[in-house]
Amino acid sequence: MHATLGCNPSYTWKSIWASRGLIEKGISWTIGDGRSVNIWNDVWVPGLPNGRIVVDSISTQFSWVADLIDEQGRTWKEDVIRLLFTHDQAEQILKIPLAEVPILDFYTWRYDTSGIYNVKSGYKLLMGPEYFSSTELSDLQKCKKRVFDSVWSCPIPSKVQITCWKFIKNYIPTALNLAIRRVPVNTDCLLCDSSPESVQHVLECNFLSHVLQVLHVNLTYMTGEQQWLQWLAQLFENLSAESTKRFLVAIWATWGYRNKRFHENANQRPMDIADFVFHYISEFEDVAIIRNPKPKPKVNNWLPPPTNYVKANFDASFQAITKITCIGVIIRNENGLIMGAGSYPNLRALSLEVAEALSCRNAVRLVLELAFRRVLVEGDFLQIINKLLAPSFDRSPSSPIIQEIKQFSGNFLSLSFLHVLRDFNKAAHALAKDGRRFDSPRIWIEEAPTTVEAVAREDRLNRSS
Questions:
Q1: What is d(CA 452, CA 434) in angstroms, rounded to the nearest whole number?
Q2: What is the pLDDT of residues 125-172, one digit of tens each?
């Protein structure tokens, strides 16, 4: 980041060097041991404007983030932080997770959840903050979204959807579009010979109108005051699901016939096209039923671990406004009996993902403290499980905790991580909610709070029934 342009640089190096400002604007530090990060000069505090500490006076006694960390307990020196910084700054710093096993600090890209730079997020950053902060869509954008949602959600073959998408985007090689590109063609509509063949005309063509009449699809045609997308949005809003399906397939079939007429001199009536549409939809639905038989009812019961294993379920109850989280961990054996449980209230976390990562770390730490060596760890937060199973690390705020959890694996004979649905994780979820009433961490051996024991008992009964 501190390299100079140099003398007579290559075009490639000049291009890379020119992007330095963008990279500097988008990167920040993720704290590991804090030895590489300057408190006052570097970007390292998520939640603050530009991620920097801004104060009236700088304390020369504290220069590096490592000076704010208690190396023995691997916790923040809260008294020092509250003395040096404003209340808001201190709160944001205390939410930054610290791995108990120190790792090196690393750069992260702030504008992607993975912490890794990609062209899309870089482009948005270059274009300005409105790409990140704007939540209001214009009327035209709303119409476009409704139209495309109607097309892509319709249960029809992909090739039909793609053709309709091309119509909406005006990517179809109609005679008028070809003429605009200076291709020498007759611009009259091949199907009705009455008007220049544009995308709008194809949808208003008498031939397609007759096809839709046979299909019992009633259209309200565009008025002079309506824009193209507004008309389509209103059209899809008024059509039933079945009529939408017939309308889209009819467009695709009519355009296919138009091409055959141009290339093969084919000759069909609107009745023939409508008959084809009926049969095509019917055959597609029959195939869909065969390929997607009625799903079996899902089993929503907790499943026990194999013999000689224990299963640790974890969950986090996260409050988005205060960023306060409560962690619940419950450990059970192959018979569904509670072997241990832990509640960890009033923890700070940057986000729900970080809260779930801390929850998983506490689960692994608890089974380790209770001397279990063959363990399955289950949670319902897919991103965390995927990161634990991935061979490498990303650069997200939860990455230091993920790295720490993986370092624990050497202490086990077997340690596996599994993702489950929320319904399989009811006991841990109940403990995460129930634990809010405690002021400090609580550990239970072969028992749990009454509400959690009731959920665990229900899991056992459902398993045996």
A1: 8
A2: 887 764 454 444 566 777 888 899 999 999 999 999 999 999 999 999
Measure the CA–CA gap between 413 and 260, rounded to whole angstroms.
67
For residue 167, CA distances in Å to 70, 174, 177, 208 come to 63, 10, 12, 14
Positive or negative torsion for Cα 355, 361, 365, 366: positive
SS3 helix, strand, coil % of the chain, rounded to 5?
Answer: 50, 15, 40
160: its two tokens: 């039909």
pLDDT number for residue 225: 56
89-103 per-residue burial string, b: 16 or more CB within 10 A, e: under 16 = bbbbbbbbbbbeebb
Closest CA to 220 of 207, 205, 206, 204: 204
Q: Among 44, 80, 46, 78, which residue's Cα sits nearest to residue 62?
A: 80
386 φ/ψ angles, rounded to the nearest 5 degrees: -60, -40
Q: How far is CA 77 from CA 51, 82, 84, 91, 281, in A?
A: 20, 9, 11, 12, 67
DSSP assignment string, 311-373: EEEEEEEEETTTTEEEEEEEEE-TT--EEEEEEEEEEE-SSHHHHHHHHHHHHHHHHHHTT--
CATH 3.30.420.10 location in the chain:
310-464
- For β-strands 310-319 and 374-379, DSSP reports them as parallel
Cα 168–chain centre separation: 27
Residues facing 317 on adjacent strands? 326
Residue in 87, 81, 89 with CA at minimum distance from that of residue 59: 81
Q: Which fold has domain 310-464?
A: Nucleotidyltransferase; domain 5 (3.30.420)
CA–CA gap between residue 460 and residue 465 (Å, rounded) = 9
Q: What is the pLDDT of residue 336?
A: 94
Residue 301 has which token pair?
């019961």
130: enclosing H helix or E strand: helix 130-133
Note the pLDDT of residue 193: 83
CB-count exposure of residue 457 (10 Å: 0-12, 13-18, 19+): middle
Distance CA(265)–CA(334), nearest Å, equals: 72
Q: Which residues of the chain have pLDDT under 50?
A: 130-131, 133-136, 299
pLDDT confidence of residue 136: 46
- The span from the CA of 125 to the CA of 26, in Å, is 8
